[in-house]
Amino acid sequence: MSEITSLQNLRVKAAVRLRNGRHRQRERRILIDGTRELARAMGAGVRVLEAFVSQPLCTDVARGLLDRLAESGAAVLHVSKPVFEKLAFGSRTEGIVAVAATPDADLSKLKLPGNPLVAVLEGIEKPGNVGAVIRSADAAGLHAVIVADPRTDLHNPNAIRASLGTIFTMPVAEASAAETLAWLRRLEFSICAARVDGSRLYTEADFRPPTAIVLGSEAEGLGALWHGDDVTPIRIPMLGAADSLNVSATAATLFYEALRQRSGRGPK
Fold this sequence. Notes:
CATH 3.30.1330.30; alpha/beta; Alpha/beta knot; about 270 residues; seven-stranded parallel sheet
């Protein structure tokens, strides 16, 4: 079994460049670091192109993925520990970093069940927040997450990690805010926009019909587009010195209120 030991190896250099968002977008490829994330990507049908493996660092779970990778047609490349450390993120050393084709995130191709509940994230800058919201959406049973006017690429490695790989199992889409709003109106969604000055408490909103929960960035909030007559501004009470929550905390609060209502109890 040959091993790549040089950081100048062309395939290694190409993979390292995928740390940069522009390279990911240009090459239509992403990096997946972590066995849980990779297993979920493969289970969701994401096309893995190649995997860099450090055998001494492989966990039992990682070793279990090797046969699946080979069967899928992905190139399995064994690398030295220094090469692997160049590819891996932070202190994670689970033994596999994979390169995959970027999953499709076209809003027009999003498939939803009857009576859908979706989240819209407008202008979120931090990929970790995007991933954390997707993780909460997955846990609370939402049907899709739409990233509108994104300020980070959807499959940034930090978003993948923060989502624990649910970014691959949860239906996700990217679009402009204007396209997203038009899509919601065409499908006759009830639109609830989270605002610190919202006129209605979140527990008073009705999340039982087809609903979109819209959240903006912590720095700027939601844009003027979400001030329409058909948009209900909702708020979470803030009783302390802080005037807002982290967007992922806000999302989790609203998602679980929607789950509570949809489980049989309506708005309070």
